[in-house]
Write a structure and sequence with these properties.
The complex is a heterodimer of chains A (231) and B (420). By secondary structure, chain A is α/β, with parallel strands linked by helices. Chain A has a single domain (34-65, 81-227), classed as Rossmann fold, CATH 3.40.50.300. Chain A has 7 helices and 10 strands. By secondary structure, chain B is an alpha+beta fold. Chain B is built from 14 helices and 10 strands. Classes of the chains: A alpha/beta (231), B alpha+beta (420). At the A-B interface, helix 2 and helix 3 of A face helix 1, helix 11, helix 12 and helix 14 of B. Adenosine-5'-diphosphate binds next to strand 1, strand 2 and helix 1 of chain A. Magnesium ion binds next to helix 1 of chain A.
């Protein structure tokens, strides 16, 4: 297997709700290498989003070790994590999470703003990213002027604009109809073929079948981790 | 530190956010607007007061020293001053003979609580007997007529030069020159009317009349009277030279022992500065108090609205954090918004304050015809605008700090999950 981008060992995430303790993840260990295409599956509440958020450095585990590109995430401060989210990770959400008052171009430029890229360079790279998701003609549209599929493609353009080493997508087709969902999935396949590492969460079997490796979670534990030979 | 691109983005977001919530933004700045209006009005009032004061001082004469038994500034103990020997006319005349650096040395005999009668109307005012030299001081500038001459002085002519206050009280319709004014039942002919000298709280100094020294002696006598000696120095630069020379001569004339303190005072218009200082201080204290109150109330409003803004935009904060905004960027974003909100308040306040100022001056000068108010500027000085905006921005940064800090510390996952 190629060099590990993600290496987690004995990951635990516990939530405290009053007196009650909820374990979202119990002892998860896993390694994901460069240019893998992974689907994380499992029933609702099995800990998929929690795992994604930790992988995406949005959240921190209660215990366990997480090495991102060999660096120990537990030792990073808030700004280091922000910088990793900015440069190394592209996040795609089920509900798109675009800024409603900004145009597609501005939305896609946003990560570059936080990376300190000049205005001119931002526009150039954001336009390129939008062209890659076939939205070159929708650059000055605002989210409410776009269809769901188009919005998700803007979100994907935003995720790839900083040329991150992994793309994380939490149920990216969850709010889309089947046809549009397939278009989005083929976009992820293209990104994977172009050399990106793609990790996506889904509870739909046919969506998961696009991936080369399927990890199944149940009650916060890995139930199975298999290569997918159908794709 | 946030990068330039982040600051620009923050600025854009802030402007956008203020625009979207325009009405709400304007309403929240009300406290700041009031605060800024008060600051500006206070600054303008003090500036105006200074201008009026400067006017009074320059009319009375900045180049004048007054040698007197009494101390204008109220320095020293009253009993000590009372115990001083009177300054006699003889001493004043000896001083005049010896002084070299002064342009004019002018003996003056004063009766403070005197009264003058025109027809059946009597008016209390100060009565001063002096020499024709007084006519060369700036305080003797006349509105109408002239000061008395050396000839009139020597022949103890019954002529009187009246102060502006006496003039307006007794001759409301004008034409005082050549009229008759009785001083101690003796009729005097009015030959001149002095220009207005005192403004606002200094008004009382216009209640005065001047007559030749010898005529004064005839009317009130010189017995038991301490003379003043006015010294015209020619320029402010000469004040020190003249003062030193005059003190030396006067000590010799009055036989003051070498180690004893002066048994007379040298007064100058500067002495009044102390009094105006207190008035200015009073305005500052009241003004600053009201302003602080307005800013405190204003900043509570700003803080509140910023908390609302942070809550409303929790999701947006989550999105920004998810794609790499650092704490400092989010902090800057909300601080800039809050500072802009307050700066906008200052900019709204400015035309309001300007309108009040212009209205006040128009009322004083054009409606109430108070000529002295002409020296007060009808415009708010630019530096007050700069101060007002700066203060508002600082208030904005302070008021926005807690909400901005809360925003910057939001947990990205929680923020993303937030739905309105
Ligand atoms: N912030 C939270 N506070 C308390 N419990 C949480 C929180 N987030 C997730 N959980 C719990 O953790 C478990 C896993 O949630 P999640 O990762 O969202 O599951 P999935 O995405 O697989 O549906 C669930 O039982 C959920 O209720
Ligand atoms: Mg989920």
């Amino acid at each position: 297997m190629s060099k590990a981008i993600i290496d987690i060992e004995h990951l635990v995430k516990r939530y405290e709700m009053g007196d009650e303790e909820v374990y979202a993840l119990r002892d998860v260990s896993l390694t994901i290498g460069d240019n893998e295409y992974v689907a994380i599956m499992g029933p609702s509440g099995s800990g998929k989003s929690t795992l994604m958020n930790i992988l995406g450095c949005l959240d921190t585990p209660t215990s366990g070790k997480y090495l991102f590109n060999g660096a120990n995430v537990a030792e990073m401060d808030d700004d280091d994590l922000a910088s990793i989210r900015n440069r190394e990770i592209g996040f795609v959400f089920q509900t798109f999470n675009l800024l409603p008052r900004a145009t597609s171009l501005k939305n896609v430029e946003l990560p570059l703003v936080y990376a300190g890229v000049s205005a001119e360079e931002r526009t150039r790279r954001a336009s390129e990213a939008l062209a890659r998701v076939q939205l070159a003609d929708r650059m000055s549209h605002k989210p409410n002027e776009l269809s769901g599929g188009q919005r998700q493609r803007v979100a994907i353009a935003r995720a790839i604009v900083t040329a991150p080493c992994i793309i994380l997508a939490d149920e990216p087709t969850g709010n889309l109809d089947t046809k549009t969902g397939q278009d989005i999935m083929s976009l992820f396949s293209d990104l994977w073929k172009a050399g990106n590492t793609v990790i996506l969460v889904t509870h739909e079997e046919d969506v998961a079948q696009h991936a080369r490796r399927i990890i199944r979670l149940r009650d916060g534990k890995i139930e199975s981790d298999t290569q997918n030979h159908h794709a | 530190m946030p990068r330039l691109s982040e600051l620009q983005e923050s600025f854009r977001i802030a402007v956008d956010s203020l625009r979207v919530n325009l009405l709400r933004s304007i309403l929240t700045t009300a406290g700041i607007v009031v605060g800024v209006v008060l600051v500006v009005l206070m600054g303008w009032t003090i500036g105006g007061l200074n201008a009026v004061w400067e006017q009074t001082i320059s009319i009375i004469g900045k180049d004048m020293l007054y040698m007197d038994k009494w101390d204008w500034a109220g320095g020293g103990n009253w009993r000590e001053l009372e115990a001083r020997k009177d300054i006699t006319l003889n001493q004043a005349e000896m001083l005049k003979l010896r002084m070299e650096s002064a342009q004019f040395v002018i003996p003056m005999a004063r009766k403070w609580g005197g009264s003058v009668v025109k027809g059946n109307t009597s008016l209390s005012c100060s009565i001063t007997g002096t020499t024709s030299d007084y006519g060369f001081t700036s305080a003797a500038a006349t509105l109408d007529g002239r000061f008395f001459t050396t000839t009139e002085e020597h022949s103890a002519e019954r002529v009187v030069v009246i102060g502006h206050g006496v003039y307006t009280s007794l001759w409301p319709d004008g034409n005082a020159v050549d009229a008759i004014l009785k001083i101690n039942r003796v009729p005097f002919r009015v030959i001149g009317v002095l220009q207005k000298q005192g403004f606002l709280f200094m008004d009382f100094i216009d209640n005065q009349v001047f007559i030749p020294l010898k005529a004064f002696r005839a009317a009130h006598g010189f017995y038991d009277r301490s003379f003043d000696v006015a010294l015209k120095c020619g320029s402010e630069a000469m004040l020190d030279v003249v003062r030193t020379e005059a003190i030396g001569h006067m000590r010799a004339i009055r036989n003051v022992a070498p180690d004893a303190p002066n048994d007379f005072s040298i007064n100058e218009t500067k002495a009044f500065d102390e009094q105006t200082k207190n008035i200015r201080l009073g305005i500052w204290v009241v003004g600053i108090g009201l302003t602080l109150l307005a800013f405190v109330v204003g900043s509570i409003g700003i803080m509140n609205i910023m908390y609302v803004s942070v809550t409303e935009r929790t999701k947006e904060i989550g999105i920004r954090k998810a794609i790499g905004a650092r704490r400092s960027s989010i902090l800057a974003q909300f601080l800039i918004e809050s500072a802009l909100l307050c700066a906008a308040g200052a900019l709204i306040a400015f035309p309001i304050a300007q309108a009040i100022v212009a209205g006040a001056r128009f009322t004083a000068v054009d409606v109430l015809e108070q000529d002295w108010a002409r020296v007060i500027s009808p415009f708010i000085p630019l530096d007050l605008l700069v101060i007002a905006v700066t203060v508002s921005v600082i208030v904005g940064l302070l008021a926005g700090f807690m909400p901005a800090l809360r925003a910057s510390r939001l947990d990205p996952v929680d923020a993303l999950r937030y739905e309105q």
